[in-house]
Every structure is written in structure tokens, then in C-alpha cells.
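Problem 12. The chain below contains 260 residues. Write out its predicted structure in C-alpha cell notation.
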Amino acid sequence: MSTITRPEVTPAAPPPASHRIGTRAGWAWVLLSSIGIAAFAVTPYLTSSLAALVESPTSGLAANYLDRPWFIVAAFYAHVVTGGLALVLGPLQFWRGLRTRRPRMHRWTGRTYLVAVAIASVSGLVIAFVNDAGFVGFFGFGTLAVLWFVTGWRAYRAIRRRDIDSHRAWMMRNFALTYAAVTLRIWLPLLILFQVLVPPAPGTDFGAVFANAYAAVPFLCWLPNLIVAEWLIRRRGLPSYRLTPSPAPRTASAANLPAR
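Solution.
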């Protein structure tokens, strides 16, 4: 069964300068890509109606939600807006300077982030039923929504217990799922490009190529992220998941046996 293990923490030498530079560069990339995708994905829905977006060359998901019931449209807008907010606030939770020099701001941005995640995950589960990728999309995006909510809840519960290490680990898992909004838009053009480079079947149009690519991203956009997050968690000595059997309980008689 799955258990969370807390690795033995031993004093370590300070990381080399190259490691610190790489960490900062990675954080800067995550921050900039999150802000860029949030602006790219959210702004059209805040500045135009779904009907107007359907008529534009880059209609996005507007056509799929134009004639849906009101609660589906409301869930879609809630998902877009709060998901974009979580995407922008998420990288700030891993900014060491904010945590140490502005702890109050760190707490309030963290609370806002987790509220945004809660709304975005619940609304994401609602719209998973009507996604463009069929059953694959329902299970892929639906699982993402459930895990997104659960990891956010676990992060909140950990910080309420003052368990800082567990809180950090769950926040890393949670933001890995938030970052699926970015990786989805990285994988999609790569999958389309791959199909363009490979000779397509006769009569294949761009719509079919896009549909094939979109059918893969419901799982591909978040599973690798979660694997990378778990690797980073272990690398930092935080509580991590391991597929190990639970230790057998010690009986009272065994506990009283003298050591040999």
C-alpha cells in the first residue's frame, strides 16, 4: 500500500552556486510561463462573449460551451478565472524571500491560492462531463480535478497542524497539477507538429490532427508534472509517497523479548 515516508534528514553542505542559479532560473521560467499562459487563456473570455469568440480564428473552447446550460457556462467561467488566478499566485508560494521577509503576505496569497484551487477544481470536475476529448477527457480531466482539490486540502490541513514539511510537499504536488494549464499548451503543439512531420493518412485534415493531439493531453498534461514534483519532494528530503508495505505491528510479547 502507499505510505508517506519522512526521509532521515542529515546536515548537508550548502548547495553550490550553480545549483542556486539553476533553481532561480527554473523558478523564473515557471513564474513567467504561468503569467503568460494565464493572460493568454483568461483574457479572451473576460474581454469577449462566447458568441464573438466562436467567430474568431482562435476560438479556443468557446464553441464547446456556447449552447450549454447556464450552470455549465457558469462553471466554465469560474474554472477559467480562478484557475488563472491560481496559476499566477502559485509560483509566489515558492518564493523564499516572500516567505521569510513578508510572512503575512505569504499567508494571505496562500489562502487566496487555495480558495482559487478549490473553486477551479470543483468547477473543472463539472465541465469534465462535457469536455471535447470524450471519455478520455472525462477521466483525465476529472481525475486532475479531484487530485487538485485533494492535494490542496491536504496542504491546508498540514499547515493548520503546523507541519511545515508536509505542507510544502503537498503544495508542490498541488502546484504541479495547477501547472497542467501550461504543460497542456506545450504538449498540444508538439503533438500536432509530430503528426505533421509524420506523413498523415490520405484525406486527414487539421481538425483530425488537432483532435488526435487533444485526445492525449487529458492525462499527459499532469501525470509527468506529478512525477517531477514527487522527485523534487524526495530530493529536498520532504515527506514523500513510496509504494512499500506497511510494517507489521509489534506484539506485546515480542516487544518484551530481550535483544540478542
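Discussion. The radius of gyration is 22 Å. Students who got a different answer should revisit the alignment rule from Section 12.3.
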